[in-house]
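$ ./design --mode recover --in tokens.txt
reading tokens...
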């Protein structure tokens, strides 16, 4: 068991039976009344941010969370299949555990977060940027717009659709930000 005195950013513990991590915290000692700790917690199962206040000295139950490297193999009726990069052990995950699954192609490296005590996968995260080929986009016509940051829709090799600048053409390779599904840059 730990207490609020042990709080630090990135600390993993159980709150209301759910695994959470601390994003931000602040110890507050008002002039009147007991001290308390304001926190922002991220629920590791669904990614939601919670604002919670703990009284100073409150006990918390720490958990052991591990990050493990995996490689995406293929998708079938069971879900997405991955192989551990070091032990070659294979696992299958449901679609709701994989963020931005349509930006993932076979052979892609991912990082999974496991609740070590239960051997339960919490999340599957792609790298911050992935390189994709543009398989379809409308050609840009000169004089289409007066603004400099105009965007058009494009389809990537995995079937995902994102918005890209007008100068991107079919067959170009681009870097895509997997956190917000935005265009990063053209890759040569």
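writing sequence...
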């Amino acid at each position: 068991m730990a207490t609020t005195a042990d709080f630090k950013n990135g600390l993993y513990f159980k709150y209301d039976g759910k695994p959470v991590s601390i994003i931000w915290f602040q110890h507050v000692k008002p002039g009147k009344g007991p001290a308390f700790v304001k926190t922002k917690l991220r629920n590791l199962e669904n990614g939601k941010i919670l604002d919670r206040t703990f009284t100073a000295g409150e006990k918390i139950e720490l958990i052991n969370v591990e990050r493990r490297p995996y490689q995406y193999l293929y998708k079938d009726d069971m879900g997405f299949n991955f192989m551990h990069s070091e032990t070659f052990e294979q696992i299958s995950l449901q679609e709701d555990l994989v963020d931005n699954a349509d930006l993932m192609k076979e052979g892609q490296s991912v990082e999974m977060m496991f609740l070590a005590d239960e051997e339960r996968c919490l999340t599957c995260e792609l790298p911050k940027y992935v390189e994709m080929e543009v398989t379809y986009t409308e050609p840009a016509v000169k004089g289409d717009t007066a603004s400099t940051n105009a965007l058009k829709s494009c389809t990537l090799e995995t079937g995902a659709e994102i918005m890209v600048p007008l100068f991107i053409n079919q067959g170009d390779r681009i870097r895509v930000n997997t956190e917000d599904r935005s265009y990063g840059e053209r890759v040569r």
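exit 0
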